[in-house]
Design goal:
The chain is mainly α and 232 residues long. Helix content is 83%, strand content 0%. α1 runs antiparallel to α4 and α5 packs parallel to α7. It is globular. Belongs to the protease PrsW family.
């Protein structure tokens, strides 16, 4: 039973990370780099829980404060902090979509361990884990896409304000997600489905926009022309 629960808990995170990683078709990041950021995400869970517990004791658990400060605020800040100080100024961050890949990796590392702890502590059934895979786990990935897109814009465009937005927008999205759960406790699953669907649509648009700005896009196109012989 324990093995099946753990497998069910970790599969969504790995599956979503693989999906977003394979989207990077122009200049895919080294797997070891992505794995490193995934592990960092795992390690963020326990200090984040400690900080959140202290804030709960200090600020209480009103739905708004918990959603936008204690949960969304703290969790998105620690992810933002890691990406900004470990990835943002590094040479391997060399195209806009890299922001998405590394931020999603950290986010899904965090969500995966959270899901494992949820499975172990509550000894929940696989169906509940499936619901978490479709909603909270994918939510973390989509918050990561938003953050990563803004990081990419902050590094590779001259438009001001995107570094600030890379923290603000994920906090708002995460806060709305959690607030829906707290405001509609008996029917939150059905209430949140349209919001998650909207997040998916927006995230896919941001993924496409990030890929379109890749400096390796035309190199990839020319290589494909040479391979197929269509440039003759």
């Amino acid at each position: 039973m324990w093995v099946s629960l753990i497998v069910a808990a970790v599969t969504p995170g790995f599956s979503l990370l693989t999906y977003f990683y394979l989207k990077d078709r122009y200049d895919a990041e080294p797997v070891r780099n992505v794995a490193r950021f995934f592990v960092i995400g795992l390690l963020l869970v326990f200090p984040t829980m400690f900080i959140q517990r202290g804030l709960v004791l200090w600020l209480g658990e009103s739905p708004f404060v918990f959603s936008f400060v204690i949960s969304g605020g703290v969790e998105e800040f620690v992810k933002w902090f890691i990406i900004f100080f470990i990835a943002f100024n590094q040479t391997f961050f060399n195209e806009p979509y890299d922001g998405v890949v590394y931020t999603v990796a950290v986010s899904l590392g965090f969500a995966t361990l959270e899901n494992v702890l949820y499975a172990i502590v509550l000894q929940t059934d696989p169906m509940s884990l499936l619901v978490r895979a479709l909603l909270p786990v994918s939510g973390h990935a989509l918050f990561g896409v938003i953050m990563g897109f803004c990081f990419g814009k902050a590094k590779f465009s001259d438009k001001p304000g995107y570094l600030r937005k890379s923290l603000l927008w994920p906090i708002v999205a995460h806060g709305i997600f959690d607030f829906i759960q707290m405001a509609f406790p008996s029917s939150w699953t059905w209430t949140i489905v349209p919001f998650v669907a909207l997040l998916w649509i927006c995230s896919m648009i941001l993924v496409r926009k990030s890929l379109e700005k890749s400096p390796f896009r035309y190199v990839f196109r020319d290589d494909m022309i040479n391979i197929t012989g269509n440039g003759q």
